[in-house]
Model the fold of this input.
Amino acid sequence: MGMKYLLVGLGLSWAVGLAGAGYEAKWDSLDKRPTPEWFLDAKFGVFIHWGVYSVPAWGKVGEYAEWYWQKMSDKKPENVWWQFHKKNYGENFDYKEFAPRFTAELFDAGQWASLFKRAGVRYVVPTSKHHEGFCLWPSAEASRAWGRPWNAAEIGPRRDLMGELAKATRAEGMKFGFYYSLYEWFNPLWLSDKPKYVSEHMFPQFKDVVTRYSPAIIFSDGEWDLPSKDWRSEELLAWLFNESPCKDEVVVNDRWGKDCRHKHGGYWTTEYAAGLKDASHPWEESRGMAFSYGLNRAERVGDYKTGREFILTLIDLVSRGGNLLLDIGPAADGTIPPLMEQRLLEIGDWLKVNGEAIYGTRCAGRACQWTEGKRPEQQFGEYMIKYNLMDQVGQAPRDGVAVKQVFFTKGPGALYAITAGWPGKRLVLRDVAVPKGASVTMLGIEGALKSEADGANLTITMPDLGPEAAPCRHAFVLRIAGGEVAREP
Done:
C-alpha cells in the first residue's frame, strides 16, 4: 500500500471509530452522559397538560383531573368520578366522544409563547400524549392502534398543535420539548400484548415525535408498570443520544421504567413534593397551580397557591440546585385560564428585577439561613406555605408570625442572598465570607449599600424605602460581590 492510500485508510478508520463511539444501550454507559448546561442554567419551565381530558375538565378536588378516563371507568355507585360523568354526560357516553369537543378554536400559539416569555419561562413542556393515548401531533401510530382517529390532526382541532407551539416557542427564544407517556391505559395493544405494544407502537411513535420536533427536553412518564428492560428504554435512549436530530441538546428525566427513578436516565424528578436537598444530581420539581395538572373546574381560587408562594418556591428550589416546572391546564378551546396567566405574570414581574439571582446560578453550598423564629424540622420544601412570611414591604406579618429566611444562590463573581420579605433596617448574614472592600447592592436599586463584615458575619443596612419605592414584591435580592457561604454541615 502506498503512503497516500495508507493515510486515507487511517483517516477512514478514525472516522469509523468516532462514529462508533457514543453511548451503549446500557445504563452504565447512558448514565455517564452529562446533563446539557442549558437545563442547569434555565431554572424555570412551564408544563402544559392539555388533551381530551380538558373537555370534562373535572376531578375530585385534591386529585388529578387528567386521570378522568381512568377514574370514571370504575362504575361503582360510590365512585364520585363515575357519578359526575353519568349525571352530566350519561352512562352510555363513551370517553372517545369527548374528542370532537376538544376543539382548540381559540388556541393561539403566539399568544401562549408571548405569555411564557413575559413570565420569565425558559423552557416549555406540553403533553404530546398523556396516558389516554390521544396525541397533539399527527401520529399515525395513535389512530392505527386505537382503530379510530386519535390525534389532534384528524379529530377535534384538526391541527398540528405541537408543531404550532414548537414554532412559536422557539421564535420567542425559549427551549421546546414535550411530555410523553410510555403507556396508555386502554390501548388495545397494551392490554393484549405489552411487548408488541412497545415494539410496534411506542417505539416508532416516540421516534416519530422526536424526529418531527427535535425536542430540547423530554419528560417521560407512565413507566411504572414495567421495568426499563421491558420498555427497552436503554435501546431507545441510545438512539436518542447517538442518532436523533436532538442528540446533543436533549435533556431527559428519570422515568424510563419502574426501576429508574432517582437511579437512571437524566435529571431526577419530584412532583407536588419538597424536591431534593442539594445539587449532587440535576433535578426538577413539577406541580400544578392548585391540586391538578389538567384543568379542574371544581377547583376554586382558594385551592390555588398565590404568586408569592410560587416565587418563594422557585427561589427555594433554585437555592438547593433544582428547577421548577410549573404547570398550567388550558381549556379545551385553547385558552389559558386568566388566574393561571396572572400567576405566571406575577412571577415574571419578579424575575424581570431579580432574574440575575436565578438564571445561570448554582447552589451556593448552603441553601438557606433562618434569621428569626424557630427553625422547623423540615429544612426544605413547603415551609414557605406553612409559615406566613411578610407579603410585601412594610406589611406586618399575618397571624403574628415573624419567620423570615434568606436563600442563597451563586453566580459568576457574586453571592446572592434572597430575603423572604423585607428584612427591616438591617440584615445580618451569618457564616459569610466577603472580600475586603467588596460591594453589596440590591437588585433593582442603584448604588451600593452600607455593609460591615465582623468575622464570619456580614451586616447590611437596608435602603430606606416605602412600599411604593421597592424594586419588587415578596422577595428581595442582595448581590454580594465575591461572597461565599459556609457549606452545609
About this structure: Residues 26-357 form a domain with the TIM Barrel fold (CATH 3.20.20.80). Residues 1 and 9 are 10 Å apart (CA to CA).
